[in-house]
Amino acid sequence: MPERRAAQNELLFRRLNEQIHKLDRNSADAMLDAVCECGDDHCFAHISIPVAAYTELRRHPQRFAVVPGHESADRDLVIGRAQGFVVVEKRSLSG
User: Fold this and answer.
1) Cα 91 to chain centroid, rounded
2) By C-alpha distance, which of 52, 58, 50 is closest to 85?
3) Which of 56, 72, 76, 81 can pair with 88 through a Cys bridge, CB separation 3.0 to 4.6 Å?
4) Which residue has the higher pLDDT, 11 or 55?
5) What are the pLDDT digits (tens) for 16-35?
6) If 0-12 CB within 10 Å is exposed, 13-18 middle and 19+ buried, where does residue 31 land?
7) DSSP states of 50-82 as a string?
């Protein structure tokens, strides 16, 4: 059950960031102020991510942006690291 709750939290934070992105109509070279998309329901850490990187991230449904150190070793595969955030791919979103 904890894995299911974590997946629900990740999707909730993703939806929040998608809404922020829709409201923030900056150019692709601008920065998007978002929240960490980790599975911790107590985490509201801030991420500053380039809009172009965020747009690319959203092309992959199982990828999320998290604060460094918020990766889950058993559920996440690290795809890339940048200043202030890590891109992870979920091993499984089912549960």
Assistant:
1) 14
2) 50
3) 76
4) 55
5) 778 776 666 666 668 888 99
6) middle
7) EHHHHHHHHTSTTEEEE-TT---TTTEEEEEEE
